[in-house]
Amino acid sequence: MRRKHGSVLAFLCLGAAFAFACYTTWTSRSGGNGLDSYQTQFLELHQRLLYAEKVNKKRSHELSSVLNEIKRAVGEKTNSTANDTVSLVMGIPTVKREKQSYLMGTLNSLFFDMSAEQRNDCVVVIFVAEVNAEYVNSIAESVRVRFPNEVLSGILEVISPSAFYYPEFSNLKETFGDSKERVRWRAKQNLDYSFLMLYAQSKGTFYLQLEDDIIVKPQYFQTIKNFAVQQTSDEWMILEFSQLGFIGKLFRSQDLPLIVDFFLMFYKDKPIDWLLDHLLWVKACNPERNAKHCERQKAYLRIGYKPSLFQHVGVHSSLTGKIQTLKDKDFGKNILHKAHANPSAKVTTTLKEYQHYTLEKAYKGTECFWAFAPLAGDYILFSFLKPLRIEGFLFRSGNVEHPGDKLFNTTVEVLPSDETVLNFSTGNGSKLNYQITKDGYIKIGAFKNGVVEEVIDPSIGKIQAIRLSIHSPSPVWVLLSEIFIKAH
Ligand SMILES: *[C@@H]1O[C@H](CO)[C@@H](O)[C@H](O)[C@H]1NC(C)=O
Ligand SMILES: *[C@@H]1O[C@H](CO)[C@@H](O)[C@H](O)[C@H]1NC(C)=O
Ligand SMILES: *[C@@H]1O[C@H](CO)[C@@H](O)[C@H](O)[C@H]1NC(C)=O
Ligand SMILES: *[C@@H]1O[C@H](CO)[C@@H](O)[C@H](O)[C@H]1NC(C)=O
Ligand SMILES: *[C@@H]1O[C@H](CO)[C@@H](O)[C@H](O)[C@H]1NC(C)=O
């Protein structure tokens, strides 16, 4: 209470002194009748200060509850994890999207080619920026199921804020041509990143900001570590490993409190990448020099690495309806799919295709097939226009950029043109020993480690269709990078 009084008092004094200064200069210029004007001006200023005080109090109240919440979350977590720190802490904020998220694919990509030593030297923190407990738990559960070892060993953590974290977003000012929804989104994003940064701060030497819909270049971990250690000057604040928004930005953990203070101070006012740029401006630029000088100074604080190590996968941003078409041009190209001359067929699937990555294109070899995560009972079907003799087949799921997007618990079945082969293709004493499905398909093979390649016994005869049947749900998306049906 006393302190609050004090600050009001200080404001008023300052106000009076300022008003007085105005008054004196005004009188010296025009002379006479100064007192009325002094009164009006003083009152006006007084009103203004009261208003500013009110706004400030509200804001500082919000901020202090925000900080308390972060402290509480950090405190709760600290005794559950190891106390030794790592080199690299990676922060991934994620929010609920209308379409499926690519979080599991992102994690796969991050852990894919890491050595045991590198795994021991990093922590990945997923920040589920939602307060719906059911949703948060479902994410935590799929992460636990998909990455049990990483979760157990403490290199993968899932956190989320309590409902009290977020202040009222209803009365935000619409600025910079952004709609109300967009202003709310960017204000929340500022708070989300701030939370994550403060949480991650004590866990390692460097903090890398990521997003939940990205893919990484092979050996990204070592590249980042080397680049950070090789910096000859200590001046840098940000090392940039991607040109996109807020992906692939590396900070020194010790700088994070300052950066977060800055974000929190202006979280309602601007998007986070602008705030970061302003912070650099404040630190590096001399307002009496020109923009070119400023850019040069900022370049000491923000150092870019080329080529980019991170790329967006999603065209769907987490802001509902916003299309995220940004692609990092420096990311480069890999061989992502392999074409084969497949026999004419009608292709169908129960899987939900992602964008233009259709099954048809994959069958022709012009693109990968890519689809949202499957459920048990989903299938991919290749029906030949007329029955064919098939020598064998090869199906490969996943590729370099999406190594984890494989088919699991999936069998390959063929539909014989002559159903009588079913009578002798199974059971005791039969020539062949295959399982038959209820709907008359013969099981020929199953995906192992994302790939299946088999020859088909010629005694099965002509084949009408080949089917990939998925027997259990999977949390990851499905990508087919190679389809090869070897017809005679
Ligand atoms: C953390 O440690 C405190 C005391 O050291 C204990 O009371 C608390 O239950 C612990 N929390 C967890 C989540 O283990
Ligand atoms: C972890 O904490 C324990 C006890 O607090 C201490 O003995 C140990 O040295 C710490 N380990 C590291 C790597 O800091
Ligand atoms: C195959 O079995 C079905 C019934 O299971 C029978 O109707 C059919 O005649 C059999 N065909 C041959 C060639 O044995
Ligand atoms: C399978 O056939 C063998 C002989 O060919 C016979 O001894 C055996 O009992 C049969 N098994 C079944 C389950 O019919
Ligand atoms: C494959 O799916 C079946 C049917 O849902 C299930 O019983 C089986 O345990 C699954 N196998 C694996 C390896 O997940």
UniProtKB/TrEMBL annotation:
One of its GO terms (biological process) is protein N-linked glycosylation. This is MGAT4 family member D. Residues 345-482 form the MGAT4 A/B/C C-terminal domain. Residues 83-331 form the MGAT4 conserved region domain. Residues 1-21 form the signal peptide. InterPro entries: Glyco_transf_54 (IPR006759), MGAT4 (IPR057279), MGAT4_A/B/C_C (IPR056576). Pfam families: MGAT4_cons, MGAT4A_C. One of its GO terms (cellular component) is endoplasmic reticulum-Golgi intermediate compartment. Pathway: Protein modification; protein glycosylation. It comes from the Eukaryota. One of its GO terms (molecular function) is acetylglucosaminyltransferase activity. Keywords: Glycosyltransferase, Signal, Transferase. The gene is MGAT4D. It comes from Sphenodon punctatus.
